[in-house]
Design brief:
Length: about 70
């Protein structure tokens, strides 16, 4: 089973030893985003990244799908 949520990057803060990424769920602006908000998790994401190549792939204002799948 997979759960997909959609989050937008709000902040990308460079720190001494990496980056902090803060994201919030989409809530509107399109029918598809409204469906994501109604049927998937909501809340806030805060991620810490140490790999510069990974951090470079995340842009403030960009929306990303976040998938939750069992690890086993």
């Amino acid at each position: 089973m997979k759960i997909r949520a959609r989050f937008t990057i709000d902040e990308k803060i460079e720190k001494r030893d990496g980056w902090e990424i803060k994201a919030s769920p989409v809530v509107g602006n399109s029918e598809e985003n409204e469906r994501f908000f109604r049927f998937t998790p909501y809340g806030a994401l805060s991620l810490g990244l140490v790999n510069p190549e990974t951090a470079a792939q995340l842009a403030v204002g960009q929306t990303y799908n976040v998938d939750f799948t069992p690890a086993d």
